[in-house]
Amino acid sequence: MKKYRILSIMLFAGLLFSFACTKEGANGPTSTSEIKGSVTYKTGDGVSHPTVNPIIHIAYNATAATTTYNDNEVGNADGTYSIKGLGIGDYYVTAEYTDTHGLHYTCAGAKVHLGNSTDAVTADFILQ
């Protein structure tokens, strides 16, 4: 009898912990929505150039600029990027790039809203 009591307690504790570790309403990668775009940078002479492997920062459940991002992605060699598998909700996305001369380019970023599970929203950035 004591053996079954201990087993029951362990089973209950396991169920309790499995439910306690779920985060409801998280907008992280869980669906088929996507944020994609291109990143270019503008030099001092006003000419735009494609970036090579820009860094894309994304904050889940965010509608304004932040210093804390949930994910960082490296863009492609042609300056394009795609963040797939996102859920419905609000995101804040920004980009940065450092050129071959060590000059660092940034932008203010953009709020992106994904309204259904198949959205593909384009957010292009021009860094300065």
Give a description of the structure.
- It is a single chain.
- A hairpin with a 5-residue loop joins strand 1 and strand 2.
- The protein has one domain: Immunoglobulin-like (Sandwich), CATH 2.60.40.
- With 128 residues, it is mainly beta.
- Helix content is 15%, strand content 45%.
- The longest helix has 19 residues.
- The strands form 2 sheets. Strands 1, 2, 5, 9 and 10 form a 5-stranded mixed β-sheet that branches.
Structural topology:
Blueprint (H helix, E strand, L loop, with lengths): L1 H19 L8 E14 L5 E3 L4 E6 L10 E4 L5 E7 L2 E10 L5 E3 L3 E5 L5 E3 L2 E3 L1
Parallel strand pairs: 1-9, 1-10
Antiparallel strand pairs: 1-2, 1-5, 3-4, 3-6, 6-7, 6-8
- The secondary-structure element order is HEEEEEEEEEE
CATH homology-level superfamily? Immunoglobulins
Query: How many domains, in number, for the residues?
Result: 1
CATH class: Mainly Beta
**Number of beta strands:** 10
Quaternary state of this entry equals single chain
Counting helices, strands and paired strands, the structural category is mainly beta
Largest sheet: 5 strands, mixed
CATH fold label: Immunoglobulin-like
* CATH hierarchy: architecture: Sandwich
- What distance lies between the first and last C-alpha atoms, to the nearest angstrom? 72 Å
Report Rg: 21 Å
Shape descriptor reads elongated
DSSP helical segment count: 1
The fraction of residues assigned to DSSP E strands is over 45%
Q: Low-confidence parts lasting 5 or more residues at pLDDT below 50?
A: 6-27
Mean pLDDT: 82
Helical residues, percent: 10-25%
